[in-house]
Structure formats: structure tokens, C-alpha cells
Amino acid sequence: MENEQDGMDEEDIDPFAELEVSTKAPQKKGENMLEALMNEEDENESDETNLFGEAVIEFEDVQIEVESDDSETLSDAEQTYSMLLETVWVDDILDPSEVELLARKRDELNISFEKHLMMVRKIIGV
Fold this sequence. Notes:
The protein has helices at 2-12, 15-18, 33-53, 76-88, 96-109, 113-124. The chain is mostly helical. Helix 4 runs antiparallel to helix 5 (96-109). The chain starts with a helix and ends with a helix. The mean pLDDT is 73.
């Protein structure tokens, strides 16, 4: 019997009253709820704009020193191949597709396998 009374009590509870939500109609007849909502959104947008407007982004200047051997200057083709080689070597593992790509580029740029080995040694620091 108590369960039935508890059930009845739960049905009698007004959730809006519990949440303290006002269910009153607007005081003035001409008051527009949509306009009030839009004004509230405008206030929020101006706050967000200020937050983004005040954000400061800083970048560090990075200077990279390039080691150059005066006796061995690389041609444009060798520089291109060296850049490609450094790119595929970044994870210290060459998969078969990367090996095939390097072989094709060596042929296109007329770079010998010996020159390739020299560049690899330079990259890995041997």
C-alpha cells in the first residue's frame, strides 16, 4: 500500500517546480520570447568574439644550419633526391614501395647507386 502512495506522490510532483523553472506567461502582451532568446545569444556571441579577439599566437623562429661540404656540392637533381630520401627515411624503415620509388627517382634523376649509398650514409651519420 505504501508503494501505491509513493507512486501517487511521484505523479503529483511538478518537475518544473522542482527545477525552479518559471512557467509564468510574459508580463507584457507584446513581449516576444524569440527576441529575448536572440538577445541572449547575441550577448554570448560577443563574449566568444572577445575571447577569440584577445587570443595571442606566437611562433618561434627556427634557424636550421645546413652542413655543406665545399668539396662536394649537390646538383639540383641530387638535392631533390636527397630531400626525397630524407623524407622516406624519417621512420628509419624503408618499405618495398619506398624502395621502388627511390629506384625510379634515381633513374629519372640519373643518380648512381653509389651516390645513393653516400647520401644514405650521410643521413644516418656513418
